[in-house]
Design goal:
The complex is a heterodimer of chains A (about 250) and B (about 260).
Chain A: E1 4-15, E2 18-30, E3 35-39, H1 46-53, E4 61-66, E5 72-75, H2 87-91, H3 93-98, H4 102-115, H5 131-144, E6 149-153, H6 161-177, E7 181-186, H7 189-195, E8 198-202, E9 209-214, H8 223-226, H9 230-244
Helix pairs in contact in A: 4-5, 5-6, 7-9
Chain B: H1 3-39, H2 45-48, H3 51-63, H4 66-98, H5 100-115, H6 122-129, H7 133-157, H8 161-169, H9 174-185, H10 187-211, H11 217-226, H12 230-261
Helix pairs in contact in B: 3-12, 4-5, 4-7, 4-10, 4-11, 6-7, 7-10, 10-11, 10-12, 11-12
The chains are: A alpha/beta (about 250), B mainly alpha (about 260).
The structure holds adenosine-5'-triphosphate (ATP) and magnesium ion (MG).
């Protein structure tokens, strides 16, 4: 059984200037320990779909099927670190709000910071970190709540191309090491192919599931290495053609 | 430390010293010329007064014990209206942030109140509040409060949607969103409101004292003008400069201290 399942989800934004149909009849299941990438053209409704899954927006139609004890963490499109808080206090935001045991949370947070090379920056302000480090901090902040499902909205879009490749490696390594289920939204096909187990291609707005790809690249390789595999470009080309093709 | 950096530091130090000297120079030059123009009768000291006459005027105010009465009265009114308008204005802004409907409903009234020249309310205030300290403080509040509400609310509402969503996804309600995100993100904004309010509360208080008062620096200014005691007018203006600057510096210090934490 899927960890979380979206069934016939649709969403219409209402505003004074009219209505915008953002999502239309999306059906999607996410299995445990799976890494799913959602790709789609800009403005297609990817962020909206993620927000619905996170429970931040109620869908206009359809429902989300998940058991109550499935904890979901959401990482917004920009890293959203709070500049007035030190790295460690940023990371501890969720336990602070949920009022969980701070001592345990702190231990776990420090363990994660240590493990992912941020120990020395614990007391620093986000503005003193590089873009890649900020992204790692944001990811650790999402991990601290021990979520069952992580929703990542274009976590790399603010980074330059080279940093992006390395941060992809980092992020996937962290997610695999912590044995998490994740959904990654991106409009970068090569990023999706290099990281995901499965790729969902969305149509342009209103978003519908256009096609689905199971990626058979060697899971033991890092995203950077996977980019060098022979099949990589085949996947890339297929998905590219698919995205370019007019929506039926 | 490299030789070049040493040179740089030294240059900066010298520059700072020169700036300070020029600042003091301007002050001396200003008072010197003023005094000179009075002694040499370039200008009629009866109209322009002079530093020595101003000093005499302040000394006589001090001797009669009036100096601190007037300073105290104005300072008290200013500080009270500053505090009330800042605290109440921020609280009202919080309420309006909390209740979007309310803020939309009240929007036109805020705009009207903000555009209205507050001095027009003078007669009403005197009749409703009475011709006393209450009227002066009310006048100052009219001037500071609305603009505080508007600027604070604008700051509150411009917090990034993404960050609010992040907190909501962590299970935060409105109260926590305000305490953990909106308020801390707005500390710089609130501090700059404080700075503006220092200036505005002085405007309001002096304006209030022009309308009604039996004491205070505004009263001295009006009285001095009516009986053509320009020494007194100049003396009050000078004291006002000093007090207003002192209050600004206190707020600036407060800003420095909070900046360390935010
Ligand atoms: N709050 C809102 N009110 C009205 N329309 C909205 C709102 N949020 C998004 N939309 C519209 O819904 C559509 C989908 O937006 P969404 O942000 O989900 O797209 P996206 O795929 O994440 O885009 P991007 O790749 O640029 O991040 C867009 O046309 C957008 O203009
Ligand atoms: Mg988006």
């Amino acid at each position: 059984m899927a960890l979380v399942e979206l069934r016939d989800i649709s969403l219409i934004y209402h505003s004074r200037d009219g209505e915008t149909e953002a999502i239309k009849d999306v059906n999607l299941g996410i299995d445990e320990k799976e890494f799913v990438a959602i790709v789609g053209p800009s403005g297609s409704g990817k962020t909206t779909l993620l927000k619905i899954t996170a429970g931040l927006i109620a869908p206009s139609g359809g429902r989300i099927i998940k058991s109550d004890d499935v904890k979901i963490a959401y990482m917004p499109q920009r890293d959203g670190l709070f500049e007035w808080r030190s790295v460690i206090r940023n990371v501890l935001l969720q336990p602070e709000i949920a009022g969980t045991n701070m001592k345990l949370a702190r231990e776990y947070a420090e363990e994660l910071l240590e493990k992912y090379g941020l120990k020395d920056f614990e007391k620093k302000r986000p503005s003193e970190l590089s873009g890649g480090m900020r992204q790692r901090v944001a990811l650790i902040r999402t991990l601290v709540s021990k979520p069952d499902l992580m929703l990542l909205d274009e976590p790399f879009s603010a980074l330059d191309f080279q940093t992006r490749l390395y941060v992809c490696d980092d992020v996937l390594r962290i997610i695999k090491a912590e044995r998490k289920t994740a959904v990654l939204v991106t409009h970068d096909i090569s990023e999706a192919v290099s990281m995901a187990d499965r790729i969902i291609v969305l149509s342009s707005r209103p978003a519908r599931v256009k096609s689905e790809y199971r990626i058979g690249l060697d899971k033991n390789l890092s995203p950077l290495k996977r980019r060098e595999l022979k099949n990589f470009s085949a996947y890339f080309k297929n998905i590219w053609t698919d995205m370019e093709a007019p929506d039926e | 430390m490299s030789e070049e950096h040493k040179q740089y530091l030294k240059k900066q130090k010298v520059r700072k010293l020169v700036v300070r000297l020029v600042q003091i120079g301007i002050l001396i030059l200003f008072f010197g010329l003023w005094e000179l123009s009075a002694t040499l009768e370039w200008a009629d000291p009866f109209i322009t007064s002079s530093p020595s006459r101003v000093a005499k005027s302040i000394a006589s105010l001090y001797a009669s014990g009036d100096l601190f009465v007037h300073m105290g009265a104005t300072l008290w009114e200013t500080v009270v209206s500053f505090l009330i308008s800042t605290v109440a204005g921020t609280l009202i802004a919080v309420a309006l942030w909390w209740n979007r409907f309310l803020s939309e409903a009240l929007q036109p009234y805020l705009i009207v109140l903000n555009s209205l020249p507050k001095i027009a309310l003078g007669p009403l205030i005197i009749i409703w509040v009475g011709a006393g300290k209450g009227a002066i403080i009310t006048m100052a509040l009219m001037i500071c409060l609305i603009i505080t509400v508007i600027s604070a609310l604008q700051g509150f509402q411009s917090v990034e949607r993404d960050k609010i969503d992040l907190l909501r996804s962590m299970g935060a309600g409105k109260g926590k969103i305000f305490m953990k995100l909106v308020l801390p993100a707005n500390i710089p904004n609130i501090l700059s409101i404080l700075k503006i309010n220092v200036g505005l509360s002085w405007v309001g208080t002096i304006m209030g004292e022009y309308l009604v008062s039996r004491e205070g620096l505004g009263y001295l200014l009006v009285y001095g003008g009516q009986v053509f005691k320009l020494d007194l007018v100049m003396a009050s203006t000078l004291i006002l400069c000093v007090l207003a600057t002192a209050m600004y510096l206190v707020v600036a210090l407060l800003e420095k201290i909070t900046e360390k934490y935010f």
